[in-house]
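Researcher: Next sequence.
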Amino acid sequence: MREPLPADETHTPGVHDSGNALTHDVRCGENDETRSPGVHGSREEALRRRTLSMLAERGLLMQAPDGTRRNRNRNHQHFEHTRDAQQQNVIEAEPLTIYHQPAWRAIDPERKPQALMDASARQRDLVALAHATPAAEADQCAAWVERVFLRMGLGVVTGDASALYHAWCQSSDTRCLRVGMIVAVPAHPYGAGGRSWGHVGLYLGDSRVRHCTDGRLADAPLELWTSVYGVMAEPRWGWLGGIALGS
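Model: Next structure:
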């Protein structure tokens, strides 16, 4: 049975909500928040705020015993805020999801994934095919990825997103993320299909992920994709079938 969605997301087609409406709703208004000079916060910060708001509305942020949103995380990146020069720095940690995963997965500037300009010819060919391959049916994100690789002549690899995650995705280090790798989670909380099969997309370079969801293709910033879909488990990446297209 499909989970109830907020009123502005009930139009999403498909039996199971795969999360595409979430990434779309988080991104809508992105330009409004970052276009005007003097507006506080970068594009990434605007996405972060909207993502955390969406997760809170869905009850996916961990709560402290007093009912407030828990904001303590000793295992993930911390951000320092100073009220004035006389005070010591106050460390505010990123909140966790109710599944004990970081609610926002920022990309460390020192650990950037591969850019498209640094990709090999074979990697760029795969990106071109990712744009040329039509969307698959609803709940067939893995089938779309597999079709892209089949059109590339890389053989047949089958399985749902969870199976691909466990078989081929070994890394969660963004420095190891290469153009053409699959990016996957074994489960997400936005519907029965997501809980059972997870979700998978293709890394296009320049911190972008292309994925098929609810019978449509969409591109999303890497930090948004991994945060929205990484609510229940750590997103990972790797070469589908173990076939490396570049170094």
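Model: Confidence is low (pLDDT under 50) at residues 1-18, 28-41, 64-68, 71-91. Helices lie at 20-27, 30-34, 43-57, 121-132, 141-151, 161-168, 192-197, 222-229.
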